[in-house]
Specification:
The chain is an alpha+beta fold. It has four domains: about 1-40 and about 130-150, Ubiquitin-like (UB roll), CATH 3.10.20; about 45-115, Nucleic acid-binding proteins (OB fold (Dihydrolipoamide Acetyltransferase, E2P), Beta Barrel), CATH 2.40.50.140; about 155-265; about 270-335, no CATH class. It is about 25% helix and about 30% strand. The protein contains seven helices and 19 strands. Strands 4, 5, 6, 7, 8 and 9 form a six-stranded antiparallel beta sheet that branches. It has a six-stranded mixed beta sheet with strand order 11-12-13-14-16-15. α3 packs parallel to α4 and α6 crosses α7 (about 305-315). It is globular, with a radius of gyration of 22 Å.
């Protein structure tokens, strides 16, 4: 299975768009109904300057949703004044404790608000393969489940034996390459590792400074740098690739754009959020309901999961019920037949 394929999985409350590359997940875009509004990549918003940090060269703008956005005080933005209203485009979504990055469009009037939405989910993931047909149904459900699992797993074991570890830190994203059971030469291993590192970073939605610790002390600097340029080409514009160091460290600057996928799926403690757990559970209810069309099904789950699941299960029909069980682990629900 070669090339890129597109999948769209839809269930009550959630849509997941998946791009696969040569049969492996490359992108995962999750959109949910009812979540608090946030600035999305490509949106245009009216904003108002609330604070100017001249020493840092940044203006902080109220853009009609939390948190405030950051605009570099360069070019036309260098003379902005506190209280001024401007139109901006979302250049990078908020992540962690960092607000969205903004690009100045021009003057605006009125209160901070959304002026024009960004690309839809379908437009965003279809841009990766404009000529591919979008697949749905069970194939899409399986592709989305596998993509979600891979996006959260820090370890990627490739079929050829290589093992990649992707670890985001506050300073950079570190990628460790382990030969594992790979039987080929170091150059072949490093070239494969670079290709899959780029794919995994797109899947996880990670950017910034990327440091790939290659195998050994490679001397094929030009070949490795060219391979990295090809592998990260879909992330252009703004990608910079340095030649590997004498210690075998390949450094790439990759722009942040979208919120990391993990922030949609897990909380700061690394455990699934109540909403993510509810979405997994409503998919499980759907699956059980199809397998046994006459059964009445009850989902027992933690109270916070039950609160998120109840309106979703109601959309499946009267056969599906939800009960909160105090003391039950949020990660360990139970589906029973009544």
């Amino acid at each position: 299975m070669s090339g890129r394929r597109l999948y769209l999985d839809v269930c009550p409350g959630e849509a997941r768009g998946v791009v696969t590359l040569d049969g492996l997940p490359e992108r995962l875009i999750v959109e949910r109904e009812g979540e608090p509004p946030r600035a999305r990549l490509g949106e245009r918003r009216a904003g108002r300057v609330r604070e100017i940090a001249r020493a840092a060269g940044i203006a902080y703008l109220d853009i009609g949703c939390e948190p405030m956005g950051a605009l570099n005080l360069s070019g036309r933005a260098s003379n902005l004044a506190q209280g001024e209203a401007v139109e901006v485009e979302i250049a990078a979504e908020a992540r962690g404790d960092k607000g969205p990055s903004l690009r100045l469009i021009g003057p605006a009037t009125g209160e901070p608000r959304l002026l024009a939405p960004g690309p839809s989910l379908e437009e965003r993931f279809k841009a990766a393969a404009p000529d591919a047909q979008v697949e749905g149904g069970e194939a899409a459900r399986e592709a989305a489940d596998l993509a979600e699992e891979a996006a959260l797993d820090p370890i990627c074991r490739l079929s050829g034996g290589l093992v990649l570890s992707v670890e985001p830190t506050r300073a950079l994203v570190a990628v460790d390459v382990d030969r594992g059971a790979f039987a080929g030469k170091a150059l072949a291993a490093n070239l494969e590792a670079i290709t899959h590192s780029a794919r995994l970073l797109r899947l996880k939605g990670l950017g910034g400074t990327v440091a790939i610790d290659l195998i050994g002390f490679p001397k094929e600097s030009a070949a490795l740098r060219a391979a990295a340029a090809r592998a990260f080409a879909p992330d252009q514009p703004g990608v910079s690739v340095l030649a590997p160091s004498r210690l075998g460290l390949l450094q790439i600057a990759k722009p942040w754009r979208e919120r990391p996928v993990a922030e949609s799926l897990v909380g700061p403690d690394g455990r699934s959020t109540a909403r993510a757990a509810a979405q997994r559970l409503v998919r499980a209810l759907e699956r059980e309901g199809r397998a046994d069309p006459g059964a009445r099904l009850l989902a027992l789950c933690a109270p916070e999961v039950a609160a998120a699941l109840t309106p979703l299960a109601a959309r499946l029909g009267p056969r599906f019920e939800v009960a909160a069980e105090v003391g039950r682990d949020a990660q360990s629900p139970d589906i029973r037949r009544r």
